[in-house]
Amino acid sequence: MTPNERDEPRPSNQAGGDSLIRKDLAALAVRPHWRADAPAPGSFSWVAMRERLSGLPGGGLNIGFEALDRPVREGRGEHVALHWLGAEGGERRITYDELRRLANRFASAITRLGLGRGERLFVLAPRLPELYVAILGALKAGVVVSPLFSAFGPEPIATRMNLGQGRALVTTPGLYARKVAPVIAQIPTLAHVLLIDDGSGACPAGTHDVGALLHDAGVEGEAFECAATRPDEMALLHFTSGTTGRPKGAMHVHEAVVTHYATGLYALDLHADDIFWCTADPGWVTGMSYGVIAPLLHGVTMVVDEAEFDPERWYTILQEHEVSVWYTAPTAIRMLMKAGTALAKRFPLPRLRFVASVGEPLNPEAVRWGQEALGLPIHDNWWQTETGGIMVANGAAFDIKPGSMGRPLPGVEAAIVERLESGGVRLIDAPDTQGELALKRGWPSMFRGYLHEDDRYRKCFAGEWYLSGDLVRRDTDGNYWFVGRADDVIKSAGHLIGPFEVESVLMEHPAVVEAGVIGKPDALLGEVVKAFVALRPGHEASEALMRELMAHARKRLGAAVAPKEIAFAASLPHTRSGKIMRRLLKARELGLPEGDTSTMEGAA
Ligand code: ATP
Ligand code: MG
Description:
Layout: H1 25-30, H2 46-52, H3 63-76, E1 80-85, E2 91-95, H4 96-113, E3 120-124, H5 129-140, E4 144-148, H6 154-163, E5 166-171, H7 173-180, E6 192-195, E7 208-209, H8 210-222, E8 234-239, E9 249-253, H9 256-266, E10 275-278, H10 285-297, E11 301-305, H11 311-320, E12 325-328, H12 330-339, H13 341-345, E13 354-357, H14 364-374, E14 378-382, E15 392-393, E16 404-408, E17 414-419, E18 425-427, E19 433-440, H15 454-458, E20 461-462, E21 465-474, E22 480-485, E23 490-492, E24 495-497, H16 499-508, E25 512-522, E26 526-535, H17 543-557, E27 565-568, H18 582-590
Parallel strand pairs: 1-11, 3-4, 3-5, 5-6, 6-7, 10-11, 10-12, 12-13, 13-14, 26-27
Antiparallel strand pairs: 1-2, 8-9, 14-15, 15-16, 16-22, 17-18, 17-19, 19-21, 20-21, 21-22, 23-24, 25-26
The structure holds adenosine-5'-triphosphate and magnesium ion.
């Protein structure tokens, strides 16, 4: 029996109807939700999207060229591309033309060092302007960029650089001394270390100073001719978040830029006069696809904040820098919720018009909180490192069913499938149905392989379908609802229970700020639902509160789905990209090995 067949109360996140957030479509018509020049979704084609980009002579395509040279050629050279805010104060505004010239200097410098097409350059740096220059410059040189999150410790850095055969690394003197130097002997391929001056010390012998390289490249370097990369040539190597196990290296090609462009249009509604802030670090795919590439393709000004999360700072940035489109993550939203609605209300945000979120399920409570605290609902969207860009989204002009991640974007064909023992899949076509989310292969930013794991890559496909590993439900209106990762789904007394459903209901309780739900083996029932909850400030863990939460969950979910056990936790384990690590909650509960924790928040 599937959850749809249960004759029990449904939580509000799946109820549709009365919890709908209706958009004022008349108001939106003043500001079209899809740019006037965007083809209607019905007439969408990837070929037409590709034609909007410049391309290179001879059929080539290059992400860096499209992100910088195209806007400059279209007259946006003097527009601010990157508005950088320093962690210690200070700011820097870099125009499209300046960024283009700097990227060209960097491309010229690394080419002169001998880095060739297809070789890998890793970046491990705080969000400093030179990080962006290096990424874009390397792409223009045809060098493959692999970003590492700067909080990684030496081991994860060495492992990934070894896997990816890193030839060059861009980092800072401080990070180099603390994290790279101790393991450099383990990275035999590494030939060039390029250091961005962050005031933490001089460049040790044998390394290069990025500032000096840019300077020395001179005006001549600014005339760098973009490498004639083919659309199917590798551009980016992204490691996954490691939520379910050891991170995989997903390989992406220059053609991905077509998806970056289209999704900037359809999912984020980017207009050239927008001030856009993507809070994700470029160490993760979101921070690359939407924190570097997509905004530049649309000629917007992107805000880059070097500092870490801080509620007051974030509201100040949104307000002072007049951010109009904001792309963030559920974990950040939950932390803002924790900081309180009163704080949010101290910062009116009249320029903010669209807020989107990705990375984890966005609980309906969070969508509604956005409406209350920011005056705007939060638009959830879904994608993965493997998909390279947003695939399913709540578009700007559609009503939102809080808890739903929206509908497939134009050009994305999604289906719900069941895996068969033969290795094939069966499409489940029923109007209100649940199963694994699959995508018809062929969208431009589809990953082209897992590094050194061909077999694993092949197993992600059944015929024409890419199998996402995520379970979803599609309602009768065509909206998709996240149920859980296939690995996280709980089987209890014949019921299939998605952790998200239970977590969202627990979060409805005013005492709960975050919940993580796992299945705990049980001799009788197969598994029982166990919840770990973190409380809001001002609430104390107690027997009485536990009983209250149990009762609330039973009332909302029914006895079969509600947790049988609830444990209070000071905080839940997260990946550095902000995802709850349910596999760790489970391993700890069962006293099993924790597995790969290299991407866990707080790990060295
Ligand atoms: P790993 O594959 O190493 O376990 P990961 O899957 O967390 O890590 P990412 O590619 O960063 O690595 O994350 C993609 C996954 O995040 C999706 O497969 C899905 O499980 C989850 N996710 C992303 N967006 C959403 C969303 N809007 N709602 C629910 N889940 C989401
Ligand atoms: Mg994954």
